[in-house]
């Protein structure tokens, strides 16, 4: 990492989540000189910082019974999967025993984080970890610079990155997951009114998945299961249910989370599961509050979710078959925030585009994932399985306000309903690749 305080580049990517990584590679491969700045010390975003996985889904449902799911998302996202497979960091795409998504792609996050740094550096991208985009310089319709604050690692100083070289203006890809670039200049953003619930994920080791499968066999009605779940479970373990156990525990006040079920996914190691069950809800209008109030509330919500982690571990060990001797293995470094500010683009992807399988002349990807809403303030999971895939247009990645600003991943210009489908990692990576390529092409 450099000690210089001023730098220039063609394309600056803010945020090193899966979308930002794909964007940086795409921009570099399109000939741009690229800097990627990431606030934390790890690349991978939600996947590595919040332990969010498996990635779902690269595929759409089969067109006819008996045929295979159709792969929609390829490109750099698939390249990540191929590389990780070679490193033992994923088994690749596996069928979903719950029947929610066409396929799941489990990822070993310990393999993913260092792999991403190596991959980006080998592509010729300058990776700046521990650098937070904190000030933005702009003209009326273009971003001219972004100043990156250093974390507390002395003697690093703030780094001002000028976007563009000599008389040629460069481009910025906002892959921060929270539209930080326009927000720093008071620009146009989409503010969610009823944001989805937050979840603090954790992993447990030593889980007897065979015992759980026996239990499911005895009480299949207590679970959400795909028709051929037994065959699928041989390849990959995932469970949504224990409905009666949770219901009884809720009645007696023993269940620590406001949820109607336990949702767990297998890890990449034997006996390891990822528990995606805690839930705290920011109030309606949370994202419209002044930042000091939001920060105070966020601290309280995070504390509450962390208490749920420890209480849930205790409850699982004491009440759920297969967990008796299991141990808490890892708690995510950061709570998972499903929905935040997004860039206001030239096009707003709407819920009806998603549920009607909309097509666009400037489509950058075709996507498929249920509209999946972790109800704010409620215990349920609302979802709608899509009849067919939908497309996302380039205009939903192009800022309406700044001619050289592009949205990647979760910064997508979408309403809450559309976002409830388009927010998942494979789609975020496809959007990242499209944004990076468009950013690089825009400066030529
Ligand atoms: C609880 C939860 C469960 C989920 N479940 C699934 C699932 O099962 N499967 C699935 O595929 N997807 C799931 N998702 C969605 C998915 O993980 C993310 O939406 C997706 O990974 C988004 O990727 P991204 O790169 O756009 O954003 P992020 O992963 O959020 O990455 C944004 C990056 O930007 C960085 N950043 C933020 N601000 C700044 C700044 N000012 N300066 C520099 N860097 C900054 C952050 O540190 C982060 O690394 C879930 C999400 C959550 C929260």
What would you say this structure looks like, in words?
By secondary structure, the chain is α+β, with helices and mostly antiparallel strands. Helices cover 30% and strands 23% of the residues. The strands form 9 sheets. Strands 1, 9, 10, 11 and 12 form a 5-stranded mixed beta sheet that branches. The chain is globular and about 70 Å long. The structure holds flavin-adenine dinucleotide. Flavin-adenine dinucleotide is lined by residues 14-20, 37-40, 45-47, 49-50, 52, 55-56, 132-133, 175-178, 180, 199, 336-338, 409-410, 423-425, 428.
List the ions, cofactors and other small molecules found in this model: flavin-adenine dinucleotide
Spatial shape: globular
Number of helices: 12
Q: How many DSSP E strands?
A: 27
* Percentage of residues assigned to helices: 25-40%
Structural class: alpha+beta
Instruction: Calculate the mean pLDDT score and round it.
Output: 94
Low-confidence stretches: none
Strand content: 15-25%
Q: Largest sheet, if any?
A: 5 strands, mixed
Oligomer: single chain
Q: Report the radius of gyration as a whole number of Å.
A: 21 Å
Distance between the termini: 28 Å
């Amino acid at each position: 990492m450099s000690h210089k305080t001023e730098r220039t580049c063609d394309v600056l990517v803010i945020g090193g989540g899966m979308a930002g990584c794909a964007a940086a590679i795409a921009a570099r491969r399109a000939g741009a000189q690229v800097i990627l700045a990431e606030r934390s010390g790890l690349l991978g975003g939600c996947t590595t910082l919040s332990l969010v996985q498996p990635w779902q889904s690269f595929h759409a449902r089969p067109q006819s019974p008996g045929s295979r799911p159709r792969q929609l998302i390829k490109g750099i996202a698939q390249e990540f999967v191929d590389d990780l497979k070679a490193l033992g960091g994923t088994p690749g795409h596996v069928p979903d025993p719950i029947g929610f998504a066409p396929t799941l792609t489990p990822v070993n996050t310990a393999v993913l984080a260092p792999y991403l740094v190596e991959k980006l550096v080998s592509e010729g991208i300058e990776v700046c970890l521990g650098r937070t985009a904190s000030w933005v310089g702009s003209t009326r319709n273009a971003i001219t610079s972004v100043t990156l604050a250093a974390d507390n690692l002395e003697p690093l100083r703030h780094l001002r990155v000028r976007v563009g070289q000599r008389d040629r203006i460069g481009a910025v890809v906002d892959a921060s997951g929270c539209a930080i670039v326009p927000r720093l200049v008071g620009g146009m953003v989409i503010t969610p009114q009823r944001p989805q619930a937050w979840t603090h994920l954790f992993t447990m080791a030593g889980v007897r998945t065979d015992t759980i499968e026996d239990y499911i066999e005895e009480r299949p009605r207590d679970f959400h299961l795909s028709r051929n779940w037994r065959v699928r479970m041989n390849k990959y373990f995932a469970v949504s249910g224990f409905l009666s156990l949770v219901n009884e525990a809720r009645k007696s006040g023993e269940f620590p989370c406001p949820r109607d079920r336990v949702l767990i996914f297998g890890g990449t190691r034997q006996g390891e599961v990822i528990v995606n069950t805690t839930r705290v809800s920011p109030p309606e209008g949370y994202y419209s509050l002044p930042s000091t109030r939001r920060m105070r509330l966020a601290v309280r919500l995070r504390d509450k979710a962390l208490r749920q982690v420890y209480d849930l571990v205790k409850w699982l060990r004491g009440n759920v078959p297969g967990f008796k001797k299991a141990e808490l293995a890892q708690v995510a470094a950061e709570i998972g925030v499903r929905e935040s500010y997004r860039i206001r683009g030239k096009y707003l992807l709407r819920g009806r585009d998603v549920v009607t399988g909309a097509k666009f002349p400037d489509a950058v990807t075709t996507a498929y994932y249920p509209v999946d809403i972790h109800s704010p303030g409620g215990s349920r999971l609302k979802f709608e399985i899509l009849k067919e895939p939908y497309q996302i247009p380039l205009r939903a990645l192009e800022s309406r306000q700044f001619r050289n600003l592009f949205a990647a991943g979760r910064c997508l210009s979408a309403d809450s309903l559309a976002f409830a489908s388009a927010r998942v990692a494979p789609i975020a990576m496809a959007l990242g690749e499209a944004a990076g390529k468009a950013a690089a092409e825009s400066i030529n």
